[in-house]
Design a protein that fits this description.
The structure is a single chain. A three-stranded mixed beta sheet has the order 1-2-3. It is mainly alpha-helical. The protein contains nine helices and three strands, in the order H-H-H-H-H-H-H-H-E-E-H-E.
């Protein structure tokens, strides 16, 4: 529950920042502040989705919902990242629009409110990053097993922090040099950076929802593991998917070429295959068996 409580605090803090940015943006005639507030509002909505997904993930598995809410993480990650893409594209569009028609802005409010937003968003991003790291400490690597849902929320807060930094820098340039176009230039640059930075997560979550295989393990490695014993003639009906960042499912059917093999021998083969697959990151393995007639006695442990 500590994880959800921290995220709830992040939501409340950012709602306060949004209200401050809208009020002072209106007073100072700063589109940068208002645009940042709108962007931050979208990010808060995304974090709310993250919060809901985390709550759903704690619910027990039932007969009706045999997988529980395992896909809630990737669903939230995809929605969050897609919304982030839409927001960043909009920010780029507005940035170019104002680049050729800059307006006079009161920079004092931009700098003051922007600094508060940088601190609040920076702390929020740090908290979400720490939650993500702590949630995957038991896994082999953070890159492969980080929580996509929380990581997407972290990307939103990181983008907010960068946009707020651009607001502060723009305010300083406007205050000292009256260069109003710097606001638009920095907004465009930071938005493009976020688009590139979040593409991997958008692709990963989409592939997960489509039940596509995006594991790093190669097909020939899996093939070598499955047909390691001379009595395993072939395999078929191979299916691999990752419903969440911490679950990798694989199922297939092996063809045993010796009718004389006992059930115990077949189980030894299957357990050996499962052991090696688990060592390669698979944590939910289903193996079906078909036995085919053969005159050759199956010798366990012998490779082809």
């Amino acid at each position: 529950m500590l994880k959800t409580t921290q995220i709830l605090i992040v939501i409340i803090v950012n709602i306060i920042i949004i209200l401050s940015q809208i009020i002072f943006g209106y007073i100072s005639n700063s589109f940068a502040l208002i645009a940042d507030a709108l962007h931050n509002a979208g990010d808060v909505l995304s974090i709310i989705i993250t919060y809901i997904a985390l709550v759903l993930a704690t619910k027990s598995i039932t007969f009706k919902k045999t997988f529980g809410y395992l896909r809630a993480e990737m669903m939230a990650a995809f929605v969050n990242t897609l919304f982030l893409y839409i927001t960043m594209i909009y920010m780029i569009y507005e940035g170019f629009s104002r680049l050729f028609s800059p307006e006079i802005i009161n920079p004092v409010y931009m700098i003051f409110v922007g600094l508060i937003a940088v601190i609040a968003n920076g702390i929020s991003a740090y908290v979400l990053k720490r939650i993500n790291i702590n949630s995957c400490r038991h896994e082999h690597t953070q890159e492969e097993h980080s929580d996509a849902n929380i990581y997407s929320a972290y990307l939103h807060m990181l983008s907010d922090t960068l946009i707020s930094v651009s607001v502060v820098i723009a305010g300083i340039f406007i205050y000292y040099f009256k260069i109003y176009s710097i606001d638009s230039i920095l907004t465009i640059l930071f938005s493009i950076f976020i688009l590139f930075h979040s593409y991997g997560l958008l692709k990963k979550s989409f592939l997960s929802l489509m039940d596509m295989n995006f594991t790093s393990i190669k097909e020939d490695v899996i093939s070598d593991i499955i047909i390691k014993h001379n009595c395993v003639e072939s395999y078929n009906d191979l299916h691999i998917h990752q419903p969440s960042s911490k679950h990798t499912f694989i199922s297939f059917k092996i063809i045993i070429n010796d009718i004389k093999s006992s059930l115990e021998e077949v189980e030894i083969i299957k357990n050996d295959i499962k052991k090696q697959l688990k060592e390669n990151g698979f944590n939910h393995i289903v193996i079906e068996t078909n036995i085919k007639n053969s005159n050759e006695k199956c010798i366990l442990g012998t490779t082809k």
